[in-house]
C-alpha cells in the first residue's frame, strides 16, 4: 500500500502519483508505435549497467554489428542515436549540413516537409522537388532537381508513412554521386520490413526508428554514415551546432574511432537493451524472411479489405507500402467513430490520416512483432463489424 508522506511543503505530491503506474494492454495497428515483442520488453526490464561498463559497451557493439546486417552495409559508423526517429533525422542534418549549404528535399508527404523545416533551422538553403501526396519520384525528376539546384545533400523518404507510398531507391545514389551530392534516406517505416541494401544502393546517410519493424519501444534510433558522408563530417569548416548529436563525439562513445571510449552522454541503457533484442529477433528470423512476412501479410490485408468493399488509397500495388496501408473512408462513414468503435470493442488501434490525408483515410500498420496473419484476420473482422455498425446507425437515423 502506498502512503502519502507527511510534508510541510507548499506544493504536495500529486495523488495520482501515489500508486504504481497502470496502463491498458492494446494492440497497436496504426502507423506506429507497434507493440514491442515480449522478448524485447523482458530485455528492457534487465538490471541497469553503467554506461561505460564493459558489458554495456559489448551490448552497444552488438547493436552496431546487427545494424550493419539490417542496413546491409559495411559502414563502420553505424550506431543508434539516443532518441526517437526525429532525433536520428536531426542528427543526420546537424552533422552533414553547414550554414548556406544547399539541400534538396523530395516532398510527397509529411516527412519531406519535416526535413525541409529541420534543414532550414540548421541554416541550409533548402529547395524542393514536389509530387502530389501518394505519388513517388522518378529518376528523371530527381536528376532535374539535382541539375537545377546543385545541392550538397538530397533527401528522400523510402516509406512515406503519412501517404503510405513506397519510393523505389534504385539508381538514386548513383545519380546523386554523379552530381557530387550526398544521399540521405528516411527508413523509419521500412527498415527490417521492406528490402533495403544501403551499400548496393549507394546511400550515404540512412536512419530509422525502433518502434516499427524492429519490434522495440521508441527511444533508440539506428543511423549509418558512408565513408563519403563521414569524410564530409570530419572536414566541416564549422563545429556541429548540436552538442548532443555531434557525430565525432558519438563515434567515440560508440567505439568507432581509435580513442578510448569516453562519456559523452548517459546512453539510454534500457532502450539499448531493447533495441539489441529487437535486432536479435530479426537476426534469428533472417532479414529475407521478415521482408517476405511483411509482403505476404500486407497483400492478405489488401485483399481482405477490398473484399469488404473498401478501396485502398494507393492504387498502384507496386507503390503501396507493405508496412502501413491507407484505406479510403467511404462516403457517409465517420472515420473517427469507426476508429473509436474498434478501440473500444477490440482494444485495437488504427489511425486516421496525417497531413493531407487527414480525415480521408484510415491507416493500418502491420509491422514487426504485429505483422501476423492472425492480426490481419482480427483487423478485417473489426473493420467489418465497425462498418456494419455505422451503416445500421445511418439507416436508423434516416428512418
Ligand atoms: C517515415 C517516418 N519518418 C520519421 C518518423 C519520426 O519518427 P519518431 O516519431 O520516432 O520521432 C516517422 C514516425 O512515424 C515516420 O513514419
Automatic annotation (TrEMBL):
<protein>
    <recommendedName>
        <fullName>Alanine--glyoxylate aminotransferase</fullName>
        <ecNumber>2.6.1.44</ecNumber>
    </recommendedName>
</protein>
<dbReference type="InterPro" id="IPR015424">
    <property type="entry name" value="PyrdxlP-dep_Trfase"/>
</dbReference>
<keyword id="KW-0808">Transferase</keyword>
<dbReference type="GO" id="GO:0004760">
    <property type="term" value="F:L-serine-pyruvate transaminase activity"/>
</dbReference>
<dbReference type="GO" id="GO:0019265">
    <property type="term" value="P:glycine biosynthetic process, by transamination of glyoxylate"/>
</dbReference>
<feature type="modified residue" description="N6-(pyridoxal phosphate)lysine">
    <location>
        <position position="212"/>
    </location>
</feature>
<keyword id="KW-0032">Aminotransferase</keyword>
<dbReference type="InterPro" id="IPR015422">
    <property type="entry name" value="PyrdxlP-dep_Trfase_small"/>
</dbReference>
<dbReference type="InterPro" id="IPR024169">
    <property type="entry name" value="SP_NH2Trfase/AEP_transaminase"/>
</dbReference>
<dbReference type="GO" id="GO:0008453">
    <property type="term" value="F:alanine-glyoxylate transaminase activity"/>
</dbReference>
<keyword id="KW-0663">Pyridoxal phosphate</keyword>
<feature type="binding site">
    <location>
        <position position="363"/>
    </location>
    <ligand>
        <name>substrate</name>
    </ligand>
</feature>
<feature type="domain" description="Aminotransferase class V">
    <location>
        <begin position="50"/>
        <end position="377"/>
    </location>
</feature>
<dbReference type="Pfam" id="PF00266">
    <property type="entry name" value="Aminotran_5"/>
</dbReference>
<comment type="similarity">
    <text>Belongs to the class-V pyridoxal-phosphate-dependent aminotransferase family.</text>
</comment>
<dbReference type="InterPro" id="IPR000192">
    <property type="entry name" value="Aminotrans_V_dom"/>
</dbReference>
<dbReference type="GO" id="GO:0005777">
    <property type="term" value="C:peroxisome"/>
</dbReference>
<dbReference type="InterPro" id="IPR015421">
    <property type="entry name" value="PyrdxlP-dep_Trfase_major"/>
</dbReference>
<dbReference type="InterPro" id="IPR020578">
    <property type="entry name" value="Aminotrans_V_PyrdxlP_BS"/>
</dbReference>
Amino acid at each position: 500500500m502506498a502512503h502519502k508522506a507527511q510534508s510541510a511543503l507548499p506544493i504536495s505530491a500529486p495523488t495520482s502519483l501515489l500508486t504504481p503506474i497502470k496502463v491498458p494492454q492494446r494492440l497497436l495497428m496504426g502507423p506506429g508505435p507497434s507493440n514491442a515483442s515480449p522478448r524485447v520488453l523482458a530485455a528492457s526490464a534487465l538490471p541497469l549497467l553503467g554506461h561505460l561498463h564493459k558489458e554495456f559497451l559489448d551490448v552497444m557493439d552488438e547493436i552496431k554489428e546487427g545494424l550493419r546486417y539490417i542496413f546491409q552495409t559495411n559502414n563502420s559508423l553505424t550506431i543508434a542515436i539516443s532518441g526517437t526517429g526525429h532525433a536520428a533525422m536531426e542528427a543526420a542534418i546537424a552533422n552533414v549540413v553547414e550554414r548556406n549549404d544547399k539541400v534538396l528535399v523530395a516532398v510527397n508527404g509529411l516527412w519531406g516537409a519535416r526535413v525541409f523545416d529541420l534543414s532550414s533551422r540548421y541554416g541550409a538553403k533548402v529547395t524542393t522537388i514536389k509530387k502530389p501526396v501518394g505519388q513517388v519520384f522518378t529518376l528523371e525528376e530527381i536528376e532535374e532537381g539535382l541539375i537545377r539546384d546543385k545541392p550538397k545533400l538530397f533527401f528522400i523518404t523510402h516509406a512515406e508513412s503519412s501517404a503510405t507510398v513506397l519510393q523505389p531507391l534504385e539508381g538514386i545514389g548513383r545519380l546523386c554521386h554523379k552530381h557530387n551530392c550526398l544521399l540521405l534516406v528516411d527508413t523509419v517505416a521500412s527498415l527490417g520490413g521492406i528490402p533495403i541494401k544501403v551499400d548496393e544502393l549507394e546511400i550515404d546517410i540512412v536512419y530509422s526508428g525502433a518502434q516499427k519493424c524492429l519490434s522495440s519501444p521508441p527511444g533508440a534510433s539506428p543511423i549509418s554514415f558512408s565513408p563519403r558522408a563521414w569524410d564530409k563530417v570530419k572536414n566541416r569548416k564549422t563545429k556541429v551546432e548540436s552538442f548532443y548529436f555531434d557525430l565525432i563525439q558519438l563515434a567515440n562513445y560508440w567505439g568507432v574511432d581509435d580513442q578510448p571510449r569516453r562519456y559523452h552522454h548517459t546512453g539510454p541503457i534500457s532502450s539499448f537493451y531493447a533495441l539489441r533484442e529487437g535486432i536479435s529477433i530479426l537476426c534469428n528470423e533472417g532479414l529475407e524472411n521478415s521482408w517476405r512476412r511483411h509482403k505476404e501479410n500486407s497483400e492478405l490485408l489488401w485483399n481482405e479489405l477490398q473484399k469488404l468493399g473498401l478501396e485502398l488509397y494507393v492504387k498502384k500495388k507496386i507503390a503501396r507500402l507493405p508496412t502501413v496501408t491507407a484505406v479510403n473512408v467511404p462516403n457517409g462513414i465517420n472515420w473517427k467513430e469507426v476508429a473509436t468503435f474498434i478501440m473500444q470493442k477490440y482494444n485495437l488501434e488504427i489511425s486516421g490520416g496525417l497531413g493531407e490525408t487527414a480525415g480521408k483515410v484510415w491507416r493500418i500498420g502491420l509491422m514487426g512483432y504485429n505483422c501476423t496473419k492472425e492480426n490481419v484476420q482480427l483487423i478485417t473482422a473489426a473493420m467489418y463489424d465497425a462498418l456494419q455498425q455505422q451503416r445500421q446507425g445511418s439507416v436508423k437515423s434516416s428512418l
